[in-house]
Design goal:
The complex is a heterodimer of chains A (380) and B (388). Chain A has 380 residues and is α+β, with helices and mostly antiparallel strands. Chain A folds into three domains: 117 residues, Acyl-CoA dehydrogenase/oxidase, N-terminal domain (Butyryl-Coa Dehydrogenase, subunit A, domain 1); 98 residues, Butyryl-CoA Dehydrogenase, subunit A, domain 2; 149 residues, Up-down Bundle (Butyryl-CoA Dehydrogenase, subunit A, domain 3), CATH 1.20.140.10. Chain A contains eleven helices and ten strands. In chain A, strands 1-4-5-8 form a four-stranded mixed β-sheet. In chain A, strands 2-3-7-6 form a four-stranded antiparallel β-sheet, with no helix packed on it. Chain A has a two-stranded antiparallel sheet with strand order 9-10. In chain A, helix 9 packs antiparallel against helix 10. The longest helix of chain A has 39 residues. The two termini of chain A are 19 Å apart. The relative contact order of chain A is 0.11. With 388 residues, chain B is of the alpha+beta class. Chain B has three domains: 91 residues, no CATH class; 109 residues, Beta Barrel (Butyryl-CoA Dehydrogenase, subunit A, domain 2); 138 residues, Butyryl-CoA Dehydrogenase, subunit A, domain 3, CATH 1.20.140. In chain B, the strands form three sheets. In chain B, strands 1-4-5-8 form a four-stranded mixed β-sheet. Chain B has a four-stranded antiparallel β-sheet with strand order 2-3-7-6, with no helix packed on it. Chain B has a two-stranded antiparallel ribbon with strand order 9-10. In chain B, helix 1 runs parallel beside helix 3. The longest helix of chain B is centred in the last third of the chain and has 29 residues. Classes of the chains: A alpha+beta (380), B alpha+beta (388). At the A-B interface, helix 7, strand 10, helix 8, helix 9 and helix 11 of A face helix 8, helix 9, helix 10 and helix 12 of B.
């Protein structure tokens, strides 16, 4: 393990402090509950505050108004926010969309939109997926037909995270043989968004496109550059989802252990019973293994390895954190007993967030299979 | 000790230089037929290797240089261990080096040090551990083997069990009850006993693998001098407890499951099982359990290298490593189908595989060195701070 330059450590310390401060004063579970199932999905005023703290620009280079830091820094913020279940689309926008755009080819578009993304003025969502479980960025059926130097766009995009109050979409489409990545403002004629409510009260958007016109200036990337940008965004977003899952498990486990210490039955705190102690210990071990993998994977990814190694690291950490978070949050319900099954109690919110994060951008089994493919014959 | 002057300061070497020096030595000198064996190596097999390590001054990496050890710091110690494990070196009967030696160094009288330490290094004294009893396993402090003072002697009566390689040992270090009226942990003393003392009898116990690796040791009016007492009278529990931490890091090393994984992968490849989605899903999940456990191990290793003591949380490493190892050996048996239950080495499409022994030898891994359940109790109490 290498030593971090002092500058990195300072950034990390400052980030951790500002996240802790924000979690204590900027958000709470009552706010999270109020936003559940609403069309707004999240709060633009809070989003603006997150922008002011610099968080939206962590992965954006400084020439585009960002901080030019790494995934390790972004993970600190994502984990801290997930602990408090903030519904704002940090990963969807400031990781998935931002990374795709940063890696895109259209410099004029980047100069125009990236500073606005960083400042919170524009909130773009990445609309790339079309079918459940189909996670190949190149498997696109939406069509982009050449028209007056730009494209006419048709088809349906699904499972768009962060779309509730998105101002624009980065849409993938097939232009002949090539995949293109296009910037499509929400109010584009021929584009219609609808929302499906998720288990945790956030939403997936469905974007229906019928002959939507995209000027040439809005073509972010084409061909190999487009699929490479998407693959990078996909892997980096999965690593940050893993960090969010870690934040979810941190709090869910903490709640469960606190409950075991205070809930009295048979004249004793139930945490004195060995059956429950051992269950809690197993959850703790799963969390620590996930932590170790998260730390290692973020360090690996921040070294910017080649695509295959990057994909393997992202899949490994997503699979581990998804399984650990699901186990910890499901068992949180069991350890709490009846109260854990009530909507009033927060344990269920953590379970539902873990479920939606685990399913988004590929579940544990999908990622393990990809890892197996990528590391075939590489057992050390 | 005369050898001390000749032993260089290995800590002054770079990690890379030290690693290649250790690697070259084990590759050149370690008996090839004893690489990656599962059963505990016997003294007659290991004598030659011990002699080579002793001659080089490498038998006791953890002891100070002035006492005939290598005086390695934590970082170098890990490299030494890693290289031995990487090459598949079996543990010799090394409890004198790893266990009782450091305790003698810490608690021994000058006379005890002068007598035992050089002999332990040379292999003249081979030690075994007399802790567990038929009625004192996980609850070790309830041990009943008693030593009573009679003139200048202790007279020992009772029995010890699960004593690994007792039939190879010349000496046994014992926990005995010396005060029956004191509370559990407080009336225990630590004795260093010659196995040739009249009244000691051994009964080998055959394990599930069919090997007689451990023994029951009976003490019938065994009379030993009072200078066999290590540390203070009735303070043996403190002596025994002084050794923890590093031992538990070693026991949680991912090397054994990693080795078992390679065997499983070779068999699976030979049989085309990796193309079977059901098998393949289970295989990759286990592979990741091992790699991810190695990441956890890496965190504790970094802690040791920084010179920080290991806390009670290191218990999780043993639980994860050993339980993963067991699951892996279970899948290996399954992968072998009918061949998986045939004794001895089997030919699987050209890959020579022993299916049963890995399974057998992973069974007690969740029992010895503090069972998985005891480790979980420790984590519940000291890490999660759950009430008792």
């Amino acid at each position: 393990m290498t030593h971090d330059p002092a500058g990195n450590m300072e950034h990390r310390g400052q980030l951790a402090d500002s996240v802790a401060d924000f979690a204590a004063r900027g958000t709470d579970i009552a706010r999270v509950r109020k936003l559940r199932g609403t069309a707004a999905e999240y709060d633009r005023a809070i989003w603006k505050k997150m922008a002011e703290l610099g968080w939206l620009g962590i992965l954006v280079p400084d020439q585009h108004g960002g901080l030019g830091l790494g995934l390790t820094e972004m993970a600190i913020v994502a984990r801290g926010l997930a602990r408090g279940l903030a519904p704002e689309p940090l990963t969807a926008t400031a990781v998935l969309s931002a990374t795709a755009l940063v890696a895109a080819e259209n410099e004029a578009l980047k100069r125009e939109q990236l500073p606005r993304l960083v400042s919170g003025q524009v909130l773009p969502a990445l609309a790339w997926q079309e079918e459940a479980g189909a996670l190949d960025p190149a498997a696109v059926r939406c069509t982009a037909v050449a028209f007056e130097g730009g494209y006419k766009l048709s088809g349906t995009k699904r499972f768009i995270s962060g779309s509730g109050q998105a101002d624009a979409f980065l849409v993938t489409a097939r232009a002949g043989e090539a995949v293109v990545l296009l910037w499509v403002p929400r109010d584009t004629a021929g584009a219609r968004l609808s929302l499906e409510t998720l288990a945790d009260g956030r939403a997936f958007g469905t974007l229906e496109l019928k002959d939507a016109l995209v000027p040439k200036a809005h073509v972010a990337a084409s061909g190999a550059a487009a699929t490479a940008a998407l693959a990078l965004a996909f892997d980096h977003a999965n690593a940050i989802v893993a960090a969010e899952l870690a934040g979810v498990m941190d709090r869910a486990l903490e709640m469960s252990v606190e409950y075991l210490k205070t809930r009295v039955q048979f004249g004793k705190p139930i945490g004195s019973f060995q059956a429950l102690q051992h269950r809690a210990v197993d959850l703790h071990i799963h969390r620590e293994v996930a932590n170790a993998v998260l730390e290692e994977s973020l360090a690996t990814l921040d070294l910017r390895p080649a695509a295959a190694a990057r994909a393997a690291a992202a899949s490994r950490v997503k699979a581990r954190c998804a399984d650990a978070a699901l186990k910890i949050t499901r068992e949180a319900i069991q350890l709490h007993g009846g109260i854990g099954f009530t909507d009033d109690y927060d344990a269920g919110l953590y379970l539902k967030r873990a479920m939606t994060l685990a399913a988004w951008l590929g579940g544990a089994t999908w990622h393990r299979r990809r890892y197996a493919q990528l590391t075939k014959g590489a057992t050390t | 000790m005369s050898a001390a002057a000749a032993i260089p300061d290995y800590n002054a070497k770079s990690d890379e230089d030290f690693r290649s020096e250790v690697r070259a030595f084990v590759e050149r000198e370690y008996p090839p037929q004893l690489r990656f064996i599962l059963q505990r190596a016997r003294w007659h097999e290991m004598k030659g290797w011990w002699g080579k390590l002793y001659a080089k001054g490498w038998i006791a990496p953890n002891w100070p240089r002035e006492d005939g050890g290598m005086g390695l710091d934590a970082g170098k110690m890990l490299i030494y261990m890693e290289e031995f494990e990487r090459h598949g070196c079996a543990r010799p009967p090394d409890q004198g080096i790893t266990q009782v030696g450091p305790l003698i160094l810490r608690f021994g009288t000058p006379a005890q040090k002068a007598w035992y330490l050089p002999r332990t290094l040379s292999g003249e004294c081979i030690w075994c551990q007399g802790y567990s009893e038929p009625n004192a396993g996980s609850d070790l402090a309830s041990l009943q083997t008693a030593a009573v003072i009679d003139g200048d002697d202790f007279v020992i009566n009772g029995q010890k069990i699960w004593t690994s390689l007792a039939d190879d040992a010349t000496h046994i270090y014992l926990l005995v009850r010396t005060d029956k009226s004191a509370k559990k942990q407080q009336g225990i003393s630590f004795l260093l006993v010659d196995m040739k003392t009249p009244g000691i009898q051994l009964r080998p116990i055959v394990n599930l693998a069919g090997h007689g690796e451990f023994c029951q040791v009976f003490f019938d009016n065994v009379r030993v001098p009072r200078n066999t007492l290590l540390g203070q009278m009735n303070d043996g529990w403190t002596v025994a407890k002084a050794l923890l931490g590093f031992e538990r890091l070693g026991i949680g090393s991912p090397r054994r499951p990693q080795y078992a994984l390679r065997r499983l992968e070779a068999v699976a490849r030979a049989k085309g099982l990796l193309e079977d989605p059901g098998f393949s899903d289970r295989f990759i999940a286990l592979k990741l359990d091992i790699e991810d456990g190695a990441a956890l191990y890496g965190r504790f290793v970094e802690q040791v290298k920084r010179g920080e003591p290991l806390g009670q949380d290191v218990s999780m490493l043993k639980i994860w490593t050993m339980e993963t190892w067991q699951r892996l050996t279970e899948l290996l048996i399954e992968a072998g189908a009918e061949q998986g239950v045939v004794a001895g080495v089997q030919d699987v499409a050209g890959v020579e595989t022993d299916f049963l022994n890995p399974f057998y030898y992973s069974r007690p891994a969740t029992i010895y060195g503090g069972s998985s359940e005891i480790q979980r109790n420790i984590l519940a109490k000291y890490v999660l701070k759950l009430p008792s």
